Amino acid sequence: MAEIIGNSPLPRFESRRYSPRIDDPCVLILTPVKQAARHLDRYFGLISRLAYPPHRLSLGMLESDSTDDTYARLEARLPSLRERFEHVTIVQRNFGFQMPAGTPRWSEPWQLTRRVTLAKSRNHLLFAALRDEDWVLWIDVDLTDYPADILTQLLATGKDIVHPHCVLRPGGPTFDTNAWRDRGRERMDALRGGTPLVRLDAVGGSMLLVRADLHRSGLIFPPYLYGRESRFARNPSPFVRDGCGEVETEGLVMMAKDMGVELWGVPELEVIHAPE
After folding, report:
1. Which residue of 7, 147, 206, 248 has the fewest CB atoms within a 10 Å radius of its CB?
2. How far apart are the C-alpha atoms of 197 and 65, rounded to whole Å?
3. Burial class of residue 77 in the structure, from the number of CB atoms within 10 Å of its CB (0-12 exposed, 13-18 middle, 19+ buried)
């Protein structure tokens, strides 16, 4: 069964159904942004149509190192955002990192530095915005489509950390290649057609639902190589690639596993990312 959102047919997750109630969990939506002015209208349009009680939603955004007017546009939206959401937090923190002009953000020589900076951005935003919410929903600013009821579908899985499938087009190959298992050899598109939920060894941050108490218990996005072999831990995590450790969202998974928490993906529940 598919729901048509805009021009995109998006599969629905048909596990335990979830009906909005007056006592729905409080959810904090968090989004770090950089050079995002062109994405903001679409971003706010998508979250405004989420099929979830607005009084149970809060919003936090962190802008860093932009050379466009991203932060000014966020400030201009503050009055309307405060009318819709329970709490709104918009902060600015520059980390002094810019990709060299003309270099794609996935360029391998810059990956570690870029991901370390993004991990710091996520953590700073988390510490600034998290109050008494039950869940944190991380959403990238450059998603262009997802089902209006995606939050309730993710909650319906009953898992502590769950990741939908990020693609460029419905049914297409995986775009967020930070979501994988078997040390990166198996991505989400290879897991379609099986069980609705699949265990993952790493996740991306395009959209990620995390039980807030895990963050309160110390689960962060490591801005360093987590799980690597060291003089303190002679054996690297069995899930990291080549024993070198993982940063940011992949590092969060390694940390969660050390906390005894598994990570789950929903291959048939797709979110659409803007082409790069």
Report:
1. 7
2. 37
3. middle
Q: Which amino acid is at 23?
A: D
> Could you give the angle at which helices 70-84 and 40-48 cross, rounded to 10 degrees?
10
Q: 111-129 and 248-258 are packed helices; what angle lies between their axes, rounded to 10 degrees? A: 60
Calculate mean pLDDT across residues 148-165.
Answer: 97
H helices within 35-110, ranges in order?
Answer: 40-48, 70-84
* pLDDT value, residue 63: 96
| Residue 15 pLDDT | 35
First to last CA, the chain: 29
Q: Which residues of 165-180 are buried (b: 16+ CB within 10 A; e: fewer)?
A: bbbeeeeeebbbebbb
Q: In this structure, are residues 134 and 25 in contact, taking their beta carbons and an 8 Å threshold?
A: yes
Contact 204, 166 (CB under 8 A): yes
Amino acid at 258: D
Residue 56 CB-density burial (10 A; 0-12 exposed, 13-18 middle, 19+ buried) = buried
Amino acid at site 162: V
Q: What are phi and psi of 76, to 5 degrees?
A: -65, -25
Amino acid at 24: D
The dihedral built from the CA positions of residue 132, 138, 141 and 145, taken in this order, carries a sign that is negative
- What is the tens place of the pLDDT at every residue in 180-231? 888 888 999 999 999 999 999 989 999 999 999 999 999 999 998 887 654 3
Question: Residues 124, 143, 167, 15: is their CA dihedral positive or negative?
Answer: positive
Residue 141's nearest CA partner among 225, 38, 247, 71 is 38
Q: Looking at residue 110, what is its pLDDT?
A: 52
Q: Is 1's pLDDT higher than 60?
A: no
